[in-house]
Write a structure and sequence with these properties.
Blueprint (H helix, E strand, L loop, with lengths): L3 E3 L2 H8 L3 H8 L3 E5 H8 L6 H11 L3 E3 L11
């Protein structure tokens, strides 16, 4: 692995639920990002608690949120 990870919604949910395997993998990451669509999916969950929303915001502040334009250099490096 190269230490660069783009997480999908399921991976974010697993990570925020404390998935030990995913936590271990990401500890050595040099770059972690989520596409903007993951933020939209996560925050649009109808039963999202205030606690989960806060946890997601804290997580989001530690990763890069990337747009999905085909000119986004973060996706090609």
């Amino acid at each position: 692995m190269n230490g660069r990870f783009v997480l999908d919604t399921n991976a974010v949910i697993a990570l925020l639920n404390g998935d030990a395997g995913l936590v271990a993998i990401l500890k050595s990451a040099t770059w972690v990002a989520i596409p903007i669509i993951v933020e939209l999916e996560f925050l649009s969950f109808p039963n999202l608690s205030a606690k989960d929303a806060l946890l997601f915001e804290q997580f989001k502040n530690r990763v890069e949120v990337i747009n999905l334009e085909n000119t986004n250099q973060a996706l090609t490096l």
